[in-house]
Amino acid sequence: MFSLNHVFHNVLNDNLCESSVHFNIPVYIVHGKYDYQVSYVLAHEYFDKIEAPAKTFFSFENSAHSPNLEEPEKFLQIMHHITLMNPRIIRNLSPMN
Q: Which of 57, 58, 52 is nearest to 21 (CA)?
């Protein structure tokens, strides 16, 4: 409820295609093809506007809004791929840090 009460009103008044297109970090979008809460077409249009050192749009052909639950094996493979492509992630998660 915290985010609903304190953040959601900002989300409603924001246009990500204008306010959030420049990133200094890699950007990965994971999106279900049958997601009716977040338009697949609009998500792709937003992705095309993003400027980042690296970016990838991962489509889930058999998912809606929760690809991590609807296609868990593919989701884990993608997360593994992302961590291998970004070794600093692994170092930052290490319990030795």
A: 52
> What string of pLDDT tens digits covers the 97 residues of the chain?
787 788 878 878 888 888 899 999 999 999 999 999 999 999 999 999 999 999 999 999 999 999 999 999 999 999 999 988 887 766 665 565 5
DSSP element (H, E) containing 69:
helix 67-70
At 59, which amino acid appears? S
Does the pTM of the predicted model rise above 0.90?
no
Query: Is there a contact between 16 and 46 (Cβ–Cβ < 8 Å)?
Result: yes
Query: Is residue 46 within 8 Å of residue 31, measured between CB atoms?
Result: no
List domains and CATH numbers for the chain: 2-93 (3.40.50.1820)
- SS3 letters for 76-91? HHHHHHHHHHCHHHHH
